[in-house]
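Repro:
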Amino acid sequence: MIRIPAILSALVLLLARCAVAEVNCSSTSIALPSVILGPHVHFVTEDSADAVCMHEGFSEAGSARTSTLHVMGLSMSAVWVSTLQILRPRSTKIIVAVECLKAGQKACSADKDGSVGYHNKGRNNFGTMNDGDDNIGNSDVGPANWGNNNIGKGNRCFNKTGNRKVIDDCSLLEFRPSLPPLPCPPSSA
């Protein structure tokens, strides 16, 4: 009988450590990754997550959030990084944000509020230090922002303030390329 409380205490301590590790995940989120291919800036297709993370010095991609060119609302196309194929159909799936992992690091799991990442306040956030609901990116304040450092509602960019009624108010010049300029694809002659 004396051993059961000791085993129970050890089990509670072990479970507490697991819960702390889960809440304190430390992966890095990259929002709205893009590349320069020739003279144009492009979003990256949903299957290019590992390439984005590896370029940033990480081992691999964890989870990602995707959308379509149509929903993004900008006059940008997407590039399939492995082949340099440019995709223009508005139904093309692109990465809105990707979680990047160091070697041996585990991807973050959703917390009790459905948020993936750390130091998020609110529900269904993806990234870090978001304050509000349904944000994808880092340090967004307010609901439904995609990108980094947005304050307001529904921004799809970086460093925007205000409640956006028009989705495509972000300039192409505001997209920080996540990958170095890629060589132009061979011309079909």
